[in-house]
Amino acid sequence: MSLTNDEIFEMAGAAVRAMHQRYGPDFKFPADVIWQNIPQGVDIPSTKRPHQPARLIRAGLLEKTGGMTKAQSESRAGSPTAEYRFGPELVQRVKAPSESQAVGKRSTSESLNGIQMAMDSEGYVISVAELANFYLAMTVSPLVVLSGISGTGKSLLPRKFAKQTNSFFHAIPVQPQWSDNSDLFGYVPTLSPTKYIKGALIDSLLEAKRNPQKLVVALLDEMNLAPVEHYFSDFLSVAETRVRDGKGITTDKLPIELPDDIPGQSDPHIDLLRGIQLPPNLRIVGTANMDETTHTFSPKVLDRAFTIEFDDPDLTAFASSQGGSNGGSNTFDELAAIAIRESNAISVQEAYAASQDLFEHIALLLSEIQDILAPAGIKFGYRTRDAILLYLHFWRELQLADILTGYAALDFCILQKILPKVAGSGEALAEALTNLTTWLNARAETQEDADGVLAEFSGPLARSVQKVERMTELLNLDGSTRYWGA
After folding, report:
1. Which of 206, 288, 203, 282 has the alpha carbon at shortest distance from 238?
2. Under CATH, which architecture does the 107-310 domain have?
3. Fold classified for 5-94
4. Taking the CB of residue 352, how many other CB atoms lie within 10 A of it?
5. Could you tell me the CA-to-CA distances from 346 to 142, 339, 391, 435 in Å, in that order?
6. Contacts within 8 Å (CB) and 24+ apart, 5-13
7. Are 3 and 69 in contact (CB under 8 A)?
């Protein structure tokens, strides 16, 4: 007689409690370990297992670390899978109250969990760790690129995030014929020097200028239908000029061509654009399908963006339809406000005093990766290092360890800021990828006496391991390799 879902859930819960007693509160594991701890002789079909961890999470018996690890069951041994730890019903983790909690507000991780549940109730599937990764990338950089195969929800993510945080949102479909910055910023026709033809980004710039306390998200949909550096290079150059001016953030002026100011014919929209800088509350989120119909990204773009790949959807995951929709209210305004607040560090120098131990430890790890890749001619500079350090600084400052462990955050950084630079052919690259795989796997071996920042960032970097292994396989098959689509 087959077991019901409720009976399977009870067995899984008992197994988790037994594992807690056997392995202790700090044990981390893939979900298939649960099924190795049920009574012998009980056969639970594989089709009835995937949705049980979600029920165990809702019961407080499990929670995701945000990291990935390797499956241990015979059928899936070695495959990357979500990593779990014991939930609040079994382990009470002490967390220092944040400034927001001191005044009775939700923590950032609680707000991210709330947004994830609201998105889930609308049928959009994303883990809270992936949502936290997107949020941290937007906090650090004015440009985030969502790449990957079609149909994975790249365009929906910024749209739904803007809705749940009561932010402004503008969708800008990129056209294949875009060739210079006039497509974004507009231009003055040669034969009509008093007219101004508005560019695709102007509405977003004006909205950000008029509402400095609100997040404005501009979606460049299918941004690599045209060569990105052709129409977007001026924006990227200006974004690099961000500096602290007193308490605020300033940049160079955006290179917008405007008609001469004619007395008595003032246009309030054009007046706002004169001398406009890059608003600190504007975020550009681009989507990119990486196939033969599109253009690859230049190093200039990759250096200045966080590139998040949507290439491995979990087809066994379904939205739960529980928790209720946010309904467009301003419940999570605080997340948008934190991402664009003027006090946020925009350089490593500003954050160094608060995160010195973190910066020194991670910089050493990045130096080791540099040494591994350098013989193959692959290097990265201070811009890449600083973006990673600021991402991890905000991860710690916002106290996101309960939804994204330190090593999971580091894994995202390596995957998104370093590995996209890896491409080419030859024996030197093959050896570098092999050595990098060995180095990444070694990070999962937590030292027994580790504490502080060493323990914080010791754990499996399974996302990066999987990508490097795929790139190695592609190199062996085709004689050359790349990040995209591997």
Report:
1. 282
2. 3-Layer(aba) Sandwich (3.40)
3. Arc Repressor Mutant, subunit A (1.10.10)
4. 15
5. 11, 12, 11, 33
6. 5/48, 8/44, 8/48, 8/49, 8/52, 9/52, 9/55, 9/56, 11/38, 11/39, 11/42, 11/44, 12/38, 12/52, 12/55, 12/56, 13/56, 13/59, 13/61
7. no
Tokens 């890896």 correspond to what residue? 422
Determine how many CB atoms are found less than 10 A away from the CB of residue 194.
Answer: 10
pLDDT at 328 over 50: no
pLDDT at residue number 226 = 93
Direct distance between the N- and C-terminal alpha carbons of the chain, in angstroms, rounded to an integer: 44
pLDDT digits over 446-467, tens only?
A: 665 667 888 889 899 999 999 9
| Least-confidence region, from 278-282, 394-398, 447-451 | 447-451
Residue listed under structure tokens 């077991």: 3
Q: Which of 198-202, 236-240, 269-273 has the lowest mean pLDDT?
A: 269-273
Q: How confident is the model at residue 351 (pLDDT cuts 50, 70, 90)?
A: very high
Which helix or strand (DSSP H or E) is residue 273 part of? helix 268-273
Tokens matching residue 154: 């790249």
Taking the C-alpha atoms of residue 325 and residue 327, their distance in angstroms, rounded to an integer, is: 5
With tokens 């509405």, the residue in question is 203
Q: Which residue has the tokens 């129409």?
A: 231
pLDDT tens digit sequence for 307-319: 999 877 677 677 6
- b/e per residue, 301-324, with b = 16+ CB within 10 A? bbbbbbbbbbeeeeeeeeeeeebe
What are the sequence ranges of the domains in the chain?
5-94, 107-310, 349-481
416 CB burial (10 A radius; 0-12, 13-18, 19+): buried
Question: What DSSP character marks residue 253?
Answer: B
Between 51 and 352, the more confident residue is 352
Q: What is the CA radius of gyration of the chain?
A: 24
pLDDT single digits (tens) 50-109 = 888 988 998 999 999 999 888 887 767 778 889 999 999 999 876 655 554 444 478 999
3-state secondary structure 372-440: HHHHHCCCCCHHHHHHHHHHHHHHHHCCCCCCCCHHHHHHHHHHHHHHHHCCEECHHHHHHHHHHHHHH
pLDDT at 177 over 90: yes
Give Cβ neighbours of residue 360 (< 8 Å, ≥ 6 apart).
none
The residues with which 80 forms a beta bridge, in sequence order, are 70
- For the chain, counts of helices (H) and of strands (E): 19, 12
